[in-house]
């Protein structure tokens, strides 16, 4: 038994044991698995504390230093946020705040990289960034200054373009443009702009043709999520411009059947 424990005959022994075991359990659950495995058989908190102090002092110093660094990083992220946030709402939600951010990033507010940044933050509402969203995005990008954020946009674009991420980004772009509560569809004009922004650089011939069709057709005034995802699937899977592998029996949205019919009729 550790020398700091009361004698077995001491009336304080049983209360001491209860507290000792409670604190031991807390300490063991508070350290890494590697450390816990080497101290789990110790009988008292004194033994355990001395062991940690002598054997793992360096690890605890590094852990404390990393925690302090993370705290400073978060402080800088918050300071950057409040340099753009509105005093009244505590969010980045004013045109001036968004324009100032885009100006400092040297991107236009209509640049697809702004949408990618919103995706990284998982911003819920178009034109609004909350502190929690900002923290999540910038910590993920390891950016706590505007200079680091500018550089991070280059890597973010590569991250978004990976096939494993792009489908999620593409569907997010649609949801991000649902500006009204319970809104489930987007008007044709806005969809054309969004298609050009999100898919135009990768599927220019398909998107140009699709936008042309959407602007002249009269059957649809709005586009829903199913149709939106169908556009992406069409660009990915269908041979263009010959459309040789397009099969209308494969449950494509009707608007795409009509689009293909329109393309074929143009070719005669």
UniProtKB/TrEMBL annotation:
Domain DCUN1, residue spans: 72-264
Species classification: Eukaryota, Viridiplantae, Streptophyta, Embryophyta, Tracheophyta
Cited InterPro entries: DCN-prot (IPR014764), DCN1-like_PONY (IPR042460), EF-hand-dom_pair (IPR011992), PONY_dom (IPR005176)
PROSITE patterns: DCUN1
The organism's place on the tree of life at top rank: Eukaryota
Purpose of the protein: Neddylation of cullins play an essential role in the regulation of SCF-type complexes activity.
PANTHER family tied to this protein: DEFECTIVE IN CULLIN NEDDYLATION PROTEIN, RP42 RELATED
Name of the protein described by the UniProt record: Defective in cullin neddylation protein
